[in-house]
Specification:
By secondary structure, the protein is of the alpha/beta class. The chain has one domain. It is 53% helix and 13% strand. It has a four-stranded mixed beta sheet with strand order 1-2-6-5. Strands 3-4 form a two-stranded antiparallel ribbon. Helix 4 packs across helix 6 and helix 10 crosses helix 11. The N and C termini lie far apart (67 Å). The mean pLDDT is 87.
């Protein structure tokens, strides 16, 4: 068989194979792949979670079990892509999976099927061809993709009370997009809360209070979506301050995420209505 005869059969096969590959990710089939192995958490990985998420230590045994199950699914089923010389990629997979799982632990639907297929991680600041500028992190709803810089991910977990966490911020954008597409009762409840936050965000007295307190960083005042993402960061990192200074906004997030923090002399406790 001559070369051109081989090429005649090989070229269509390659084109069809590539098309199936694109469809596989475009319609989220990767997340349904039954052959993806679900790797359980090791004892060292559980220690890693406790070191990076103080809230993890407050979970009941039942809540920890649910947290582990969801982290295992998310880490295995979402498509992680690492560019360049990104160190500790497995740790980053675990860290990012735990971030979104803990954020959504009060929600029955946590898999982000409508909003997130892949997570791309660069070693540091990267150039976005779409926006034609350098970025530290972004969420692209059209491609259902979150893009992050590894050094800024780690920086977000160095100080757990500075209200700056890049991973949590971008996941909050994806969560907002997800819940806006979700027709469940929790999705509708989330959208009602977001409308109430939008109303608060538009009130002059509330904006004066925001400016005077400086509790929310200035970037959060850009627009409603950025304010929501910044508020989520604050909600998880400094809930006691948040609840004391902005109780109305705190309660809206509490309802939207279906989770609450309770405070006593020993510290804070955490719970959701799904704990049982």
């Amino acid at each position: 068989m001559q070369f051109w005869d081989v090429l005649k059969y090989l070229a269509p096969a390659c084109i069809i194979g590539h098309a199936f590959y694109l469809i596989y990710y475009a319609i989220d089939l990767y997340q349904f792949n039954p052959f993806v192995k679900l790797k359980p958490l090791s004892e060292g990985e559980e220690d890693f979670l406790a070191d990076n998420f103080p809230i993890y230590k407050e979970f009941s045994p039942q809540m920890k079990a649910k947290c582990h199950e969801r982290i295992i699914w998310f880490r295995s089923k979402k498509h992680f892509v690492f560019y360049g010389n990104t160190d500790r990629s497995e740790d980053l997979k675990l860290l990012l999976s735990a971030t979104i799982v803990i954020m959504t632990l009060g929600l029955r639907q946590y898999r982000m099927m409508r909003s997130l297929i892949r997570i791309i991680v660069y070693p540091s600041q990267y150039y976005s061809k779409i926006n034609r500028r350098n970025h530290l992190g972004e969420y692209n709803p059209n491609f259902k993709t979150i893009i992050l810089s590894a050094d800024k991910i780690w920086e977000g977990f160095e100080d757990l009370m500075d209200n700056k966490n890049l991973a949590m911020h971008e996941f909050a954008h994806a969560l907002s997009y997800e819940m806006n597409k979700n027709n469940s009762w929790q999705g509708r409840k989330f959208r009602v809360g977001l409308r109430r936050i939008e109303k608060l965000f538009g009130e002059e007295d509330f904006n004066v209070k925001l400016a005077a307190s400086q509790y929310f960083r200035e970037y959060g005042l850009t627009n409603l979506q950025e304010f929501f993402s910044v508020a989520v960061e604050n909600y998880f990192e400094t809930p006691a301050i948040f609840k004391n200074d902005f109780p109305e906004l705190f309660e809206e997030l509490q309802v939207m995420l279906n989770m609450d923090f309770h405070f006593n002399k020993e510290g804070r406790t955490f719970r959701t209505s799904l704990e049982s």
